[in-house]
Write a structure and sequence with these properties.
The structure holds 2 protein chains of 2 kinds.
Chain A lengths: L3 H8 L3 H8 L9 H15 L15 E6 L3 H5 L2 H16 L3 E5 L5 H7 L4 E5 L4 H10 L3 E4 L9 E5 L1 H14 L5 E5 L14 H12 L8 E3 L4 H14 L7 E4 L2 H13 L9 E3 L16 E4 L1 H16 L8 E4 L1 E4 L5
Parallel strand pairs in A: 1-2, 1-3, 3-4, 4-5, 5-11, 6-7, 6-8, 8-9
Antiparallel strand pairs in A: 10-12
Chain B lengths: L3 H8 L3 H8 L9 H13 L13 E6 L9 H18 L2 E7 L5 E2 L8 E5 L4 H10 L3 E4 L9 E5 L1 H14 L5 E6 L1 E2 L5 E2 L2 H12 L8 E4 L3 H14 L4 E4 L2 H13 L9 E6 L12 E4 L2 H18 L4 E4 L2 E3 L5
Classes of the chains: A alpha/beta, B alpha/beta.
Chain lengths: ~325, ~325
């Protein structure tokens, strides 16, 4: 397992900086560029166990990786960074050139200017933008968003199954007061809200068990500050009848939730257990270490490139929707 | 040393029969008893097969019981064909396993395979047996454990939705459904997935009529019998059948009762077996790309071996409109 020192070396910063950034210490002042470098280094080092098979080289191919985030926003979502790195790794292994196209005002210009053999779409875009991209390219793979029209390949993870497994675990441990602090995925251009499978499944499962309590249910953003703010609200509103477990929509939320709980001098997991989703490599460095669901996000990126190549090389005309596996990781918090 | 001729003469069977059994031709249907007899005789007569091509790598293919029924056979046979065709291209060997006289899988033929493709639904006990051969397993048409095994499946919910959208577009008023339960073994009955999604959708539209929903098995005989039962009550605008064999039986019933298809009643199948277009009338059905599923299954097996991470692949389906609607 990589140490903070290993990450510091790779990212060319001091171990103290690494530790503070990975624990999301807001008092530190480092540039976004540096933060990004640190997360990427952690990501790179975590992905060491996979055998490197000799892959067939694909010279003279160029792909575009279109991400719905801006550089700034992506830092707050290491999950997407890890998917992107999986894409980059696979592209490098197969000698494919790639461009990363961020979601800023130059998106359309950048896309129209280049001749890519295919593109990978990372995240959620408006129908309008998707139509635009689809008008330019035939070879497309959607990652982390199911192509609702099923005209292209998609790579996804089953958030419903994940939520069900986590809740079954918590209920199995005897928890009857289970809360949810979730987020929303908003499509940048239209400000529309996407359906959140975690949120839906959470409600369905708890209703089935007769355990749903709306006082323990809060939705905000997929961000640390939101997790922090909402847990504070929740703890205040329910202090005479606190939940015994909280399921957090993602790791960023969980970090904020943990901070909020600890500040009130409550113990994790003894007073309140916390379970999260995503398992970015940095989570083992938080205190207490977070129980979470590891989604094979880098593998999602690898698969995306693989699927795209099959399309580019005309090896397959069937459009596939591929789900990657996940694993519940039990650490200190639940 | 015994030759095929000797064995066939001793048993009073044709050389073709003996040859195809000893060469493990999966598309060849023969009684278990007969198969056993041939293998036993060949063994006792010291028969040695002519040197076969030895492949660097082999993949095992296991079919569940239902694949041996002539009715549901086409679907599973086509998937198997997809696997063997692609294996041939990749110069990979394919070994098949069958059930013995005690209805247990005889996996002795599968020693040394690098991966297993298991087509159909299996009990936990059977799956443990498979794991003893290899951990690299891909299931087709079921996904017993998505964190351990890869799977290649179709999205039933979407498939039923496609059909319902089509039904709506044609403005059919009364919808009948003839489905089937699948028997995994004597104790286990596999739920009717299409029905679940169909019921959900129909209940939402308040279109659910018990008399028009019948569940039997996946045979033409069952389709024939249940279609008659439905027509006894009334003639629906359209009958959606859980597979093409059932639709075949339903069409037969319509002919017998002088009900004109599609003029009096429309019929929709599921699978698009190779002979669906030759039905009378040619069948409107949901196309399931079975050969491509087989191909993807083999690919998944080889990928799983390298990646060591299982994936679940959903295969798209689409409705093929012919003359039965």
């Amino acid at each position: 397992m990589p140490t903070i020192k290993d990450i510091a070396k790779l990212a060319n910063v001091s171990p103290a900086t690494v530790s503070r950034v990975l624990n999301h210490d807001e008092t530190i002042s480092v540039t976004s560029k540096t933060k990004k470098r640190i997360f990427e280094a952690a990501e790179k080092l975590a992905y060491t166990k996979h055998r490197h098979k000799i892959k067939s080289k694909q010279p003279h191919k160029k792909i575009g990786i279109i991400t719905w985030y801006t550089v700034e926003k992506e830092i707050n979502d290491p999950y997407f960074i890890s998917i992107r790195m999986g894409i980059q790794r696979e592209a490098k292994d197969t000698n494919i050139e790639f461009d990363i196209i961020y979601n800023d005002q130059n998106l359309r210009k950048n896309l129209a200017a280049e001749q890519y053999h295919g593109v990978i779409i990372l995240g959620r875009f408006s129908e309008e933008t998707k139509d635009f991209i689809e008008s330019l390219y035939n070879n497309i793979v959607y990652v982390n968003s199911v192509d609702t029209r099923f005209e292209y390949d998609s790579v996804y993870v089953d958030f419903r199954a994940i939520t069900k497994d986590v809740l079954n675990y918590l209920i199995g441990k005897g928890h009857k007061k289970i809360g949810y602090i979730g987020g929303q995925e908003i499509i940048p251009e239209t400000q529309e809200r996407n359906i959140d499978h975690r949120e839906l499944e959470f409600q369905e499962v708890l209703y089935q068990h007769n355990l749903f309590n709306s006082k323990y249910f809060k939705i905000g953003e997929y961000a640390i500050e939101s997790g922090y703010r909402l847990i504070n609200e929740l703890l205040k509103e329910t202090y005479e009848d606190l939940p015994t477990a909280i399921f957090c929509g993602n790791d960023s939320i969980a970090i904020g939730v943990v901070r909020g709980i600890l500040e009130k001098n409550l113990k994790i997991p003894d007073d309140i257990a916390v379970f999260s989703v995503n398992d970015i490599p940095t989570l083992q460095y938080t205190s207490p270490s977070l129980s979470t669901v590891k989604i094979y996000s880098e593998f999602m990126g690898v698969l995306a490139v693989r699927l795209l190549l099959e399309q580019i090389n005309n090896e397959r005309d069937l459009k596939l929707t591929v789900y990657v596996p996940y694993e519940l990781v039990f650490r200190e918090s639940a | 040393m015994a030759k095929l001729k000797d064995i066939s003469e001793k048993l009073g069977l044709s050389i073709t029969t003996v040859s195809r059994v000893l060469n493990e031709d999966p598309a060849f249907k023969v009684k278990d008893e007969t198969r056993k007899k041939i293998i036993k005789t060949a063994h006792s007569m010291g028969y040695k097969p002519t040197a076969r091509v030895t492949y660097k790598e082999s993949v095992g293919v296991v079919l569940w019981d239902q694949a041996n029924r002539l009715d549901t056979h086409p679907y599973f046979r086509e998937i198997t064909e997809g696997i063997t065709a692609h294996a041939k291209k990749l110069k990979i060997g394919v070994k098949h396993a069958f059930k013995d006289e005690h209805h247990q899988f005889d996996l002795s033929n599968l020693q040394g395979v690098s991966a297993l493709v298991c087509i159909g639904k299996f009990t936990r006990k059977e799956i443990s047996q498979f794991e003893a051969i290899t951990q690299t397993i891909v299931f087709v048409d079921s996904s017993p454990n998505e964190q351990r095994f890869s799977s290649v499946v179709i999205d039933f919910k979407r498939a039923v939705q496609h059909i319902l959208d089509f039904i709506t577009s044609k403005q059919y008023q009364t919808i009948a459904y003839i489905g089937g339960y699948e028997q995994v073994n004597e104790q286990t009955l596999y739920g009717e997935r299409r029905k679940v999604y169909l019921m959900q959708a129909l209940k939402d539209k308040e279109n659910y009529d018990k008399d028009l929903v019948k569940i039997g098995d996946f045979s033409a005989e069952s389709g024939h019998r249940l279609m008659k039962k439905i027509i006894d009550k009334r003639i629906p605008s359209v009958v959606f059948c859980a597979n093409d064999s059932i639709a075949f039986g339903a069409l037969k019933a319509c002919h017998e009762l002088h009900i004109k298809v599609p003029e009096d009643m429309a019929v929709i199948g599921f699978n698009d077996n190779e002979n669906a277009k030759d039905f009378s009338p040619p069948l409107t059905t949901l196309h399931v790309p079975t050969k491509k599923m087989g191909r993807e299954a083999l690919k998944s097996a080889l990928e799983l071996k390298d990646d060591q991470l299982p994936v679940k692949k959903y295969i798209p389906t689409k409705i093929i409109i012919r003359q039965s609607t």
